[in-house]
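Figure 3 (text version): structure tokens given as input.
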């Protein structure tokens, strides 16, 4: 069945792969499913037609037959459940992979988003100079815990899974901050994710869209 996702008509990051359609593209590439992309402007995202698909007026969305989904965690989980390649067959290992997906979006991503907000959207506020080191501390604490758990392992729990796909996607948002490099094993973990052929295809596809004439 045809799969259609939505993405920014022009991502504010100019194609650095940080918008969340990249993780959905990556998941589809990992399982070998082709997909189409409908590009939407910021204005179109807030119009009734898009709000029917995404109540919060955001991208990405996912359509497949009469199924319409939003939220990248739910979309990647759906892809992993329908196609081989992202979730282990063993029931316990599968539950643990899903646990890492939740950990990525629910425990690791929030302080990272706090930092993005503090640095980019509130960087000119009078409290920014005091707030940024505080939020950096929250991010460091999470990275330290994650780094300890990952140790010398290649992936979070055995073979690469949707849990790693979500975690690497979340950590990539830290690249510009330099914090990731303080944790050598996490920096190497992210680099391993980026080196996967499926990630490269996903990245290249969104780059092409965002750098077209
Ligand atoms: N929890 C949702 C999910 O995981 O699907 C979050 C979806 C979301 O935040 N979508 C953003 C969006 O549509 C795009 S990805 N924003 C428009 C709006 O809310 O009006 C977030 C994002 C945007 C830009 C960059 N960037 O330029 O670096 C990075 C990430």
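Below: residues designed for each position.
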């Amino acid at each position: 069945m045809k799969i259609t996702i939505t993405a920014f008509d022009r991502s504010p990051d100019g194609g650095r792969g940080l918008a969340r359609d990249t993780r959905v593209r990556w998941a589809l590439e990992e399982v070998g499913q082709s997909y189409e992309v409908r590009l939407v402007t910021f204005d179109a995202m807030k119009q009734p037609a898009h709000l029917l698909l995404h109540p919060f007026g955001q991208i990405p969305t996912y359509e497949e037959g009469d199924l319409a989904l939003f939220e990248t965690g739910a979309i990647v989980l759906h892809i992993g459940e329908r196609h081989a390649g992202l979730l282990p067959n063993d029931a316990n290992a599968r539950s643990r992979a899903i646990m890492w997906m939740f950990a990525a979006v629910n425990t690791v991503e929030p302080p990272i988003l706090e930092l993005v907000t503090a640095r980019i959207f509130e960087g000119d506020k009078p409290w920014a100079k005091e707030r940024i080191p505080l939020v950096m501390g929250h991010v460091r604490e999470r990275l330290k815990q994650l780094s300890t758990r990952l140790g010398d392992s290649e992936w979070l729990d055995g073979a690469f899974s949707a849990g790693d796909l979500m975690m690497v996607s979340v950590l990539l948002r830290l690249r510009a901050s330099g914090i990731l490099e303080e944790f050598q094993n996490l920096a190497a973990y992210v680099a391993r994710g980026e080196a996967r052929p499926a990630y490269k295809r996903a990245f290249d596809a969104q780059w092409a869209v965002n750098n077209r004439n």
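The first helix runs from residue 21 to 30.
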